[in-house]
Amino acid sequence: MKHWDDRSRKQRARDLAALKRKGPTREPYDAVLIVCEGAKTEPQYFGEMRAKLRLASTNVVITGEGATDPIGIVNTAIALFAADPIYDRVYCVFDRDTHATYRPALEKIAATRLRREGGKRGAGVARFAAITSVPCFEYWLLLHYEYTTRPYERVGRHSACDRLIHELKSHGHLPDYGKGAKGLYKETAPRLETAMNHARRALAAAESGGTDNPTTRVHELVEYLVALAARRP
In whole angstroms, what is the distance from residue 133 CA to residue 152 CA? Predict the structure, then answer.
């Protein structure tokens, strides 16, 4: 698993240069950094959402390059913010799944303060939050079609996430789904309100029951982006 510190100098330089190039052309509303687990499904989903909401890519920066585990994602987000500390909000999107660094990542986010040097409200502390899914992002997708709070666990060679993906496909919701699938936001968007309601309900049920399996906080980021689009000039 690669962390930010393990990345090549060349890749690091490209990331920082790209972020700096975006600075002068930002629109006059919140600047947001979204760092995702993996380079495919989640970045594509949020990228498609950003385009549909007509949010500027200079304001809502989405990356899935580099780290592939929760603590690496958090370290990447901190490093990218340090390179361009104008973001009003920084979100780390990751799953629990089988990651050993899930809890340490949450603890590091809770203990870290990101000091802005610019942004919509000038200097101050940026909001730094984890957008988690247990066991994985696909639970958010499933909630577009059905409500369930049944826990997902590993069985034999199949991880909890493997089992959830099988359910998502075998129930006929997204029969052709695969990691990195394109067009997910467009396909699921008509059921977005249903998914958000299900996610809120499932999160409340989990918290009441003293568990986090299954839960997702993707709705929190989705709600924020929708609200941001409604507020933009």
Answer: 12
pLDDT in tens, 196-214: 999 999 999 999 999 999 9
Burial 196-217, CB ≥16 within 10 A → b, else e: bebbeebbeebeeeeebbbbbb
Report the chain's terminal Cα–Cα distance, integer Å. Answer: 41
CB atoms within 10 A of CB 28: 8
135-171 in b/e burial notation, b at 16+ Cβ within 10 A?
bbbbbbbbbbbeeeeeebeeeeeebbbbbbbebbeee
Most confident listed range (2-6, 10-14, 104-108): 104-108
Bridge partners, residue 155, by sequence: 158
CA separation for the pair 216, 141 (Å, rounded): 10
The sign of the CA dihedral 90, 149, 188, 168 is positive
> Which residues on adjacent β-strands are paired with residue 63?
35
Q: Which three-class secondary structure state does DSSP give residue 125?
A: strand
Complete DSSP assignment for 183-231: SHHHHHGGGHHHHHHHHHHHHHHHHHHT--SSEE-HHHHHHHHHHHHHH
Global pTM reads 0.88
Residues of the chain with CATH 3.40.50: 4-135+217-231
| Statement: 4-135+217-231 belongs to CATH 3.40.50 | yes
